[in-house]
From TrEMBL:
MF-aspect GO terms: transmembrane transporter activity
UniProt membrane topology term: Multi-pass membrane protein
Descriptive protein name: ABC3 transporter permease protein domain-containing protein
Location in the cell: Cell membrane
MacB-like periplasmic core domain ranges (all copies): 71-219
Domain ABC3 transporter permease C-terminal positions: 306-403
Signal sequence residues: none
Segments passing through the bilayer: 15-35, 298-323, 343-369, 376-393
A GO CC term attached to the entry: plasma membrane
Lineage, uppermost ranks: Bacteria, Pseudomonadati, Verrucomicrobiota, Verrucomicrobiia, Verrucomicrobiales
Amino acid sequence: MSITTLIFKELRHRILGACISVLTITIALTCLVASMEAMRSYDLKTEQQLAELDQKTKETNQKLNDQIRKTMKGLGFNVHIYPATQQLSEVYAQGYASETMPEAYAQTLADSSIVSINHLLPRLSRRILWKENNTEIMLIGVDGQVPISHRNPTKPIMQPVPPGSAVIGAELAKQFKLKVRESITINQQSFTIHQIHPPRGTIDDITIWIPLKSAQNMLNLPGKINAILALGCNCTSIDRLGTIRKELKTILPNTQVIEIESKALARAESRNKVREESERTRQNIVTSRKQGRSDRQAFVTLLTPLILIASLVGLFTLCLFNVRDRRPEIGLLLSMGIPSSKIFTLFLGRAALIGCSGTLITLTIIFLLDYPLDHYWDLALLAPLLTVLSAWLPTLTAARHDPLISLKQD
């Protein structure tokens, strides 16, 4: 009779003990799988929470970015570039820079790889006496915006003043009863009124805009400007102005930058605050989940050895009782010339088959619970190893026992 046939007959003859052993190993493996699955599920939940937070933050920032971009563009230029030698106190006091710089600076910026500003507008401005009307005005010479070479064309914030034309502030138009398409003379130069701005409540109401070349000729400053206006990007950097200055220093070292505060900048700051708050929330989630995982891991680390030890003890006890009950039978087999190695193989094969049966039942439970089987195929080795290990010592003792003593006890 083959050893395999003996193993199955052995299991069938002592079915109760075999079932108890299979149940023991199944319970042990199921507890291990449950603890491992709890950890995996916890990690997946953490990843899901972080992914949802990241997506929500991304959507919020996108909406806020669009609002900021539209608002900042509507409020106009917020970055002013002046010559490095210009006293800013003078700019704040009189509203323009007395120092000048080459008009070519604007094109140099446009041809560079600068990313922190856009919508470049060179201009030349002065307070002058409008001799024909004996009144002081702000004269601003501007052309169109200088397109930045490495970016797609964008809609300009300020439309250019057509050649030979002038744009008039609301107060000047009201005071001198000026109308669109009417001709005016400014210090012996003739212009056609192209547009009259509505009241703005600022110095713009007493300002006249003319083409840059005309202003340079009138002020005897050919090829000169005293400012470049730009729109600062909505940088994520906390020190946005520092970022702009750092870029400009490498491109136009003989300039300085100021940023005009506005509601748009406050909106830009709110974007950074949303980002910072999101990062804090994310870090809190990570910290909280990490602590929770650590607590669960400590529990699993304690539980796993206990389960393995308990299952080993249980299987060892069952096998020990089985061997003790069958000492006379083992003694008879040995006295009949059956080699101890065959008896050894019989009991260990029985233990291995019990372990395989427990593994099969456990994998079935995993499948029914819809757990990923690929995480648990190593159980196919663990369970037979546990059962063989628990049966090793009792089987070895029985196989080496003197058959005369066993028969005598019988």
